[in-house]
Amino acid sequence: MENITQLKALLGVPKNIVITTHRNPDGDAIGSSLGLYHFLNKGGHTVRMITPSEYPENFSWMPEIEKMVVYDIDPEYSQELVEKADIIFCLDFNALDRIDKLGDLIEPTKCHKVMIDHHLYPEGFADFLLSDTTASSTCELIVDFIHLLGMESDLDVKIGECLFTGIITDTGSFRYSTSAKLYRIVGELVERGVDDYKLQDLINNSMKEKHLRLLGHCLNNRMEILEEYNTGIFYLTKQDYEDFDIQRGDTEGIVNYLLKIKNVKMAAFIMEQPKIVKISLRSKGDFSVQEIAQKHFKGGGHKNASGGFSFQPLETTLKRFKGVLPQYRDKLAAAVI
Ligand code: 5GP
Ligand code: MN
Fold it and tell me: Residue ranges of the DDH domain (predicted)?
């Protein structure tokens, strides 16, 4: 962040601050919002968090998560908070269309905007930008941000546990996007008192029976392996959504099971949700799924984890996805894991 001195000066005086993050917030979106919230609160600011849509229930143990204002539930209050803000932090997203109507509210505001994010190709709407696509997570970047401000003595257990949560979820418990720097940061968080075992347990061993049954259903009945294209697909129908009572967050992590097959280098999860067909893409090694998400499914994301959506029916979307594969066949075959 080039103009950190200016931001540091702004934060030297108590401000009205809004923290916002992307739709369908994941562990990193929630962890970075809450971590920054507790940090700024400690600095004497009046801080509010807004998320465009509801957060998954499995994060309800996180300290003060209930203070998150959900735009979909409370649009008027969200608008009031945005209008009153002196500074708006945008975390874990880099384009205002990722936050839908909330983006339309934020765009015209005159207040200072700070973007902290690790996705590819950031839009230029922020006055202060901390963007690093090599970072594991936005939570890692919040630790960097605290260091840039020279306020690491404020990094306590509560802040650390929120940030550790996003690091665990965005790295699949330290399996990808790791670096020596990340391990140093994690070491610092543990030194501050973060209980890594407790957090791993809270995050990874919190499935309900219905989640395991849904995973079984995907593995048994909704899986296609296209060896020719080193690609695996899971899909879910509208009927599955009813039969398994699938709620927000219930499909999290399932797509990764496809990558357990040795020669599968790209995994796709195509979900016929009530209003749209959502697509989650994952890859191994140097094959990037970002381009497929952006070019063909109005989305984006990272090299190894991207997503998008389609308004066409499930069948058509599945066909369209399969239709794209021949163009990538050689790249997939050649990709180094
Ligand atoms: P997931 O598959 O877990 O929903 O998302 C994986 C990654 O892709 C996330 O980092 C997310 O930011 C990105 N992503 C998912 N859906 C969309 C989308 O509709 N638009 C864009 N631009 N990115 C998405
Ligand atoms: Mn993230």
Answer: 16-167
